[in-house]
Amino acid sequence: MKSAVRGAMITFRADPFIVPDEESLTHLSDALIVIENGKIVAVGDAAELLPSLPPGTDITHYRDALIVPGFIDCHAHYAQTPMIAAFGEQLLDWLNLYTFNTEQAFGDPAVASEVAAIFLDEQLRHGVTTSAVFGTVHPESVEALFDQARRRNVRMLAGKVCMDRNAPASLLDSAQRAYDESEALIGRWHGVGRLEYAITPRFAPTSSPQQLEALGALAARYPDMPIQTHLAENRDEMAWVARLFPDARDYTDVYARHGLVRPRAIFGHGIHLTEPELDRLAENGASLAHCPTSNFFLGSGCFDVRRTRQRSLPVLTGLATDVGAGTSFSMLTTMNEAYKAAQFNGHALSAVQAFYLATRGGARALGVEDKVGSIAAGMDADLAVLDMAATPLIRYRMTRVRTIGEAMFVLMMLGDDRAVRDTWVAGCRWMPSGGLAGAFGDQHRAGAAQSILQGQAFGIDQCRQKRQQAPGERCQGHQRPMAGALPCAKVGEHGNDDEQYQRDDVADGRFLPG
């Protein structure tokens, strides 16, 4: 049965980083989007399409609103939702102090399911209908995430984090386990509904060469499958990678030599990449996820989107919240931060370019542009409806805009979750199930408060000691020299971080189904 959504609408017909804004954008002041079986079957001026609808067609008419393609978040960590807005120093300290501690709970299916539901409802409340999401090392975390995503019918790429060193022992798998558990999840979830599995090494420092080899072998078995990881986020991280992989010519080469740089490989951050690395990403069809909010939060640097998009070999680039280092689920807030990052890099990011990164650009980065990211016949009917009068200030400011580009800029600079009036997922209007309100009971709150009061966040007491010590000194209670700004680690809890790290998971160099 057909239904329709009516109102002002924008979508993209071209890339505004390549052609002028006005040539890339389609804007209809009174559009009709006709939907059937979760797909868009027609789009055009309402006056032209209304007579063609069957009598009694359900039409949802939005006034003082702008209908846009459902937002696409190219990089997020659902298991970090409980620790969003956790104070930290920079990336490596933050991982040690908070992230690993939080993620240890996700072997419990009940915890994983509860947080997955909160995460997905927050995404939908902010108009996000497609995302690439990291689980934890526990297969249960991915099972729960996919189950909750299937219930909401969102489009999602997700995978089990793989890491076999430089993390707490309870978060370590092995090369063979990473392969076997990932393949088991692929068999259960890849292609179910709107879900896809993504091969997910956390980042190079937490995977041994053997594990990267195993994941490369898995990727070779599934040549069209997404891959997601991190790349060149932080200067200290890059120095660490250089020590761990001395034979690699650069950070990108660590992944490339294992077959992990290819179409549908999405690399989070990419702030500090060299020109040759950008060339290699572009030549191999890989993508970057621009995470401005978390880049600012952790002081990682300013990603230069013009450098990746407006070059002779452009790199596919999408926008990402990177929750929980990113401090907002809002793609509007993330566009706001992307604008500021561009200004720090000496150029302006237009609203048209920002919205492109959050919609069609993100779809291209994830390799799903034939399904989402645009409002056009044949596409999934994923829509975000933005309220042009969401707050008194937005309402007032909109009385003075002259162009659709100005209106979009107001929304991205002043908007947040309040500016998302409705979210449509595969032709159905999403109805909030409560979101964060009432999600955690008193027991959860008491437990969280108790762990905070007792200072049980992973490594807080021990690892803060390094701030008073020079590189090369030993942290009290730890068994290896401190390494400047690198994370402090207890042997047996974090594993071994030197390049001679070995595991006996590979027989004859081949990784086979378990």
From TrEMBL:
Its cofactor is Zn(2+). Its EC number is 3.5.4.3. Pathway: Purine metabolism; guanine degradation; xanthine from guanine: step 1/1. Signal peptide: none annotated. Residues 67-427 form the Amidohydrolase-related domain. Residues 488-514 are annotated as: Disordered. Keywords: Hydrolase, Metal-binding, Zinc. Residues 491-508 have a biased composition (Basic and acidic residues). PANTHER family: GUANINE DEAMINASE (PTHR11271). Catalyzes the hydrolytic deamination of guanine, producing xanthine and ammonia. This is Guanine deaminase. It comes from Paludibacterium paludis. The lineage of its organism: Bacteria, Pseudomonadati, Pseudomonadota, Betaproteobacteria, Neisseriales.
